[in-house]
Design a protein that fits this description.
Number of helices of chain B: 0
Shape of chain B: globular
Oligomer: heterodimer
Largest interface: A-B, 21 and 24 residues
Helix content of chain A: under 10%
Number of strands of chain A: 11
Strand content of chain B: over 45%
Number of strands of chain B: 11
Structural class of chain B: mainly beta
Distance between the termini of chain B: 31 Å
Structural class of chain A: mainly beta
Strand content of chain A: over 45%
Number of helices of chain A: 0
Distance between the termini of chain A: 36 Å
Largest sheet of chain B: 7 strands, mixed
């Protein structure tokens, strides 16, 4: 079993829909990172969380340390949100472990 | 543009060869991280440097080595290359925050290595 699991693996939705991507982890962590990888390959950092909730524009990230779970939400989704979303955790040994990513496709 | 630069963008070489990938972090960032992304393994953490010193090590092969120079740029050296080393290699940088050891990372555009 991977130490960081994301679901779903693939998600196709219509423009305007509310999107939720989940990340569960099995190790103790110092922080959790949500990344976005565009079709061209570039990686952008979206959020870094160690507790609670963060919001940036239409993106919201939450983390529940007790349940070892984080969610990334996208409100009013748009075709330009189509990308791979990757969850990464920093474990207690300062090592970064990545999930396998969620491929999101928003249809116009 | 993240402010992190990587050269070269593309590299094609043969098995058994040695290559050097270069990364320049954002101005003021002391930490540099190297990652490998292959089709079958996804993103994997290789190694982290902080202000010239190795800070954390991930799944880095013995054939690979890295260093961070006094001007904070970093190089990843890959030797005795194998077909399976073909991948995207990303570097990222971050700056320290008060009271914490981890901060948001900014990724470079990556170097695509093809080993033939």
């Amino acid at each position: 079993k991977n130490e960081v699991e994301q679901s779903p693996q693939n998600l196709t939705a219509q423009e305007g829909e509310f999107i939720t991507i989940n990340c569960s982890y099995s190790v103790g962590i110092s922080a959790l990172h949500w990344l976005q990888q565009h079709p061209g390959g570039g990686i952008v950092s979206l959020f870094m969380l160690s507790s609670g909730k963060k919001k940036h524009g239409r993106l919201i990230a939450t983390i529940n340390i007790q349940e070892k779970h984080s969610s990334l939400h996208i409100t009013a989704s748009h075709p330009r949100d189509s990308a791979v979303y990757i969850c990464a955790v920093l474990n207690r040994d300062d090592k970064i472990i990545f999930g396998k990513g969620t491929r999101l496709h928003i249809l116009p | 543009d993240s402010g992190v630069t990587q050269t070269p963008k593309h590299l094609i070489t043969a098995t058994g060869q040695r290559v050097t990938l270069r990364c320049s972090p954002r101005s003021g960032d002391l930490s540099v991280y190297w990652y490998q992304q292959s089709l079958d393994q996804g993103l994997q953490f290789l190694i982290q440097y902080y202000n010239g010193e190795e800070r954390a090590k991930g799944n880095i092969l013995e054939r690979f080595s890295a260093q961070q120079f006094p001007d904070l740029h970093s190089e990843l050296n890959l030797s005795s290359l194998e077909l399976g080393d073909s991948a995207l290699y990303f570097c990222a940088s971050s700056r320290p925050v008060a009271g914490g050891s981890y901060n948001e990372q900014f990724f470079g555009p990556g170097t695509r290595l093809t080993v033939l």
